[in-house]
Amino acid sequence: MSRSRFHTTALRAASIGALLTVGLAGCSAAGEADADASAEAAAPAADPTSLVLALVPSQDQDGLVDTAAPLTDFLSEELGIEVTGVVSKDYQAAVEAMGAGQAQIGFLPSLQLWQANDMYGAEVVLQTERNGNITYPAQFMTNTPDKYCADTPVERDGKLFCNGADALTGPAGLDAIEKMKGAKVAVLGPGSPAGYIYPMLALQEAGFNIDADIQQVPVTANDASVLAVYNGDAEVGFSFWDARDIVAKDTTDVGQKVVVFAMTEEIPNDGVALSKDLSPELQQRITDALEAFSNTPEGSQILESIYSITKLAPANPESLDVVARAAEALGLQ
């Protein structure tokens, strides 16, 4: 992984504020006396008696910890250490929580994996697979297909696509994004590779002033972006492929009313980072436990319900550099 420091100043300033409200367990009291610092430095720190697993809000935050409970229960039993799941306020807050020792395990998007390693020395140990794929595109979706589709939408797995986006790999249909000038667009925070960075970079490369040429409708998660388009609060929305599946169980016609008309370049999959403060032995035990969990039918089903993950596999940290470069191209530093 490139060691050129990627200091996302604007992102980090926002995330530090968010960190103050994230409420992660295990926070040390500020200003705690450190009289034994020299003695502690002479010997390696003992592994913690409890661990915090940080989740980012890619979908409804309220139910995410409950959905992940079988995973944290499994880890607690396998490791003999209590593991608690928490949902950070935003993507960047999860990175800062790991840097502050408030979380030891992070399920993070690709940019945040890069940052956790580059800024705080976290080990990127696993990356996700989804139906055998190790990358995914961000998607542009609309409730106005007559405007954005150059052809008749086609159905795949109960969902509509046009402009070649039914190939399910990016890039596709990006000529159509030129029609977005003046549109209301559902946008995640700037820490989101699929909900902000890659779609905004595509718009910038198409000649857009991303601050002036679209009306940004801020949303907090991918399912909220889908629903903003579904409900007519935005004409276009950004999300990972295919976030429509998250809301389909409650909104059965979402695949017909929300049409995907373009896809960005492929993005490296999200994954798992572990705090550098954990011993190599414990890091390996956590990694092995998570990978084993993903290889069971029950574990795969749980990971699917959390983040649409079908498998966890050994990470390729160097693959994440491309996401950092994309963020830099947008001036997020």
Automatic annotation (TrEMBL):
Q: Which SUPFAM superfamilies match?
A: Periplasmic binding protein-like II
Which PROSITE patterns is this protein grouped with?
PROKAR_LIPOPROTEIN (PS51257)
Keywords in alphabetical order: Signal
UniProt GO cellular component terms: ATP-binding cassette (ABC) transporter complex
The residues forming the signal peptide are 1-29
What's an example Gene Ontology biological process for this entry?
A: transmembrane transport
- Protein family membership: Belongs to the phosphate/phosphite/phosphonate binding protein family.
Q: Which PANTHER family match?
A: PHOSPHONATES-BINDING PERIPLASMIC PROTEIN (PTHR35841:SF1)
Q: What is this protein called?
A: Phosphonate transport system substrate-binding protein
Q: Which organism is it from?
A: Leucobacter aridicollis
